[in-house]
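Reviewers of the previous submission asked for a worked example of the structure-prediction workflow described in the proposal, so we include one complete record here. The input consisted solely of the amino acid sequence. No template or homolog information was supplied to the procedure at any stage.
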Amino acid sequence: MNITLPSLDQQARRVVHGRGHCVEGAESFNIEWLPPIMLIVAYSPLTEDQLGALVEVLSAEPLVEGIYLQERDQPKAPVRHIWGDEQCPSEIQEHGLRYHVDIGTHQNFGLFLDMANGRDWVRERAQGKHLLNLFSYTCGFAVAAMAGGAASVVNLDMSKSALSTGRANLRLNGLDDKRARFLGHDLFKSWGKLRKLGPYDVVIADPPSMQKGSFLVEKDYPRIIRQLPTLLKKEGVAVLCLNAPWLGRQFILDAVAEEAPQLVHVETLDRPEVIQEKSPDDGLKVMIFIHKEG
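From that input alone, the workflow returned the following C-alpha cells.
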C-alpha cells in the first residue's frame, strides 16, 4: 500500500482517492480529512493488516486525533471508531466556509468533498446572479454562491431534512437565508414552478447516479437537460455534474446535442489535485455550458 498524504490544515478535503485506481493498494477506499478526524470510506472489506497499515500512517499526522471506518459495502454503511479520540466533528470548513456534518447517521455525512472545485467555480462567478440548485442536498453550492454575492438561490431537493441542513449551513456562515428558497419537491413535477421563479443566470444539476424509485441517470438526466433552455437566461450557464462511473463525458455531450442544442460546451472543470483518475471519463465530471439562444 503506497499512501502519501498531502499537507493537512484545518480545511476538510479528500486526502486519498483510491477509487480512482491511481494509488497502489488503495483501490477499494477513499480517505476524507474531517478535522480533527480521518474517515476511511471502504467500498469492500479491508483486512486487519490493511487497517493496521492505514492507522499507522494516519495516526502519525500531528493534527489527526481520531480515525473512523465507514463500511460502504454493508447495509446502511455503518461507521465505527478504530483509533484515537471518539469525538466526531459536527461541522467542518472548506476554503473558509463552514458546513454542518453528521458522521455515521446516514451514508453521506453532509458534503461531497470531491465537488470542492465546482463550489469554488460557482463562488467566484456568483456576484449578483440568480441561481437554481437542483438536487441541492445540504445546499453546498448555495453556500458557495451566497458567499460569492449571489442575489438569490432556489434550492430543490426531495429531502426536506437535507434542505433544513442547507438553511442551517447558510446561517452558520452568516449568510442571508431570506435570499434563498428551499423547495422539498419532486423535480419532475416542478418545472412550472421553477420557470415562474426564473429565469436564472446559473442552473446547477448534480443528480445521483441512481436513486431507486426516483432517478435513473440514463433515462432522467436527458429529461432535465431538455428543460434547461426554458429555465436559463440567454447567455446563462448550466453546470452539469455527472458521477456515474459507467458513463463518460460523451453521455452529457450527446444528451445536450439531442435535447438542448442551444447549450454550448465551454469548459470541463478540473478535479481537486488529489482526485486522480485513470481516465478523464472516470469519476466525477463537471461540465459548463452556455445558453446561446433565448
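The CA atoms of residues 94 and 136 lie 17 Å apart. We consider this example representative of the routine output the project will generate in years two and three.
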